[in-house]
Design brief:
By secondary structure, the chain is of the alpha+beta class. Helices cover about 45% and strands about 30% of the residues. It starts with 16 loop residues before the first helix and ends with a strand.
């Protein structure tokens, strides 16, 4: 067996300096192109993202402005609603007051109507002079009263006479009005006579006797219980 000699050497040609420089420059240029491309892509992506962010910011700003406008409208509506509520409450108060005054006026008119009806057509059907009623008030140390005298049905003649009132504590006479002579009266339809009696204290069983002595000598009298006298 014959072996081939291994002493033969192969010598590769050595690259020149200019070739090496060309390779380096070419590689650097290629790297620059790659980096520039990556940079451009980054810039484009950044611009696109910036535009998207700006559009989102604009949308958010528009939404905020719209919410502010809606809030202002809502606040204005709330103010208007409060004013309307205040107006309605004031109107309700005025209506309630007017209704109360109307009820009071109707009550007064009703009382007056009953009074005039009692003069024209009394419930007992009795004609002539009568002691219609009394209103009493108790203040500190004084009993005040208003006596109403009427002439029912027939009113052709004047009613003349003398009026007096006597205060009793049970069956005991306490005081009288007037203190001296009786009070003279003269009327055709009705007359209201006011007076007062000095008192220390009004007992629960106190009563007032009202007497009307007519010019012809006829005597009318009526007793009034003072338990419900108005205390001021």
């Amino acid at each position: 067996m014959i072996r081939k000699s291994t002493n033969d050497l192969s010598i590769k040609p050595k690259m020149s300096r200019s070739a090496i420089m060309s390779v380096i420059i070419g590689g650097g240029f290629l790297l620059f192109i790659v980096l520039y491309f990556v940079y451009e892509q980054g810039v484009r992506t950044g611009h696109k993202k910036f535009e998207q962010d700006q559009e989102l910011i604009s949308q958010l700003s528009s939404a905020v402005e719209a919410n502010k406008a809606n809030l202002a409208i809502a606040e204005e509506g709330l103010i208007i609603s409060k004013r309307q509520q205040q107006i309605q409450e004031e109107a309700y108060k005025q209506m309630s007051l007017a209704y109360a005054n109307s009820e009071q006026k109707n009550s007064v008119l009703g009382s007056r109507l009953d009074f005039y009806r009692s003069i024209i057509s009394p419930e007992d059907g009795q004609s002539g002079p009568a002691i219609q009623g009394i209103e009493t008030r108790v203040t500190e140390g004084k009993l005040s009263f208003d006596i109403t005298l009427v002439q029912a049905i027939k009113h052709k003649h004047q009613v003349r006479g003398n009026l007096r009132a006597t205060l009793f504590d049970g069956d005991t006479q306490v005081s009288k009005w007037p203190l001296s002579s009786d009070r003279s009266v003269n009327y055709q339809y009705f007359q209201q006579v006011s007076g007062s009696i000095d008192i220390n204290q009004l007992a629960s069983n106190s009563k007032l006797k009202v007497e009307l002595t007519l010019q012809n000598g006829e005597k009318l009298e009526r007793w009034f219980n003072l338990a419900n006298a108005v205390v001021n």
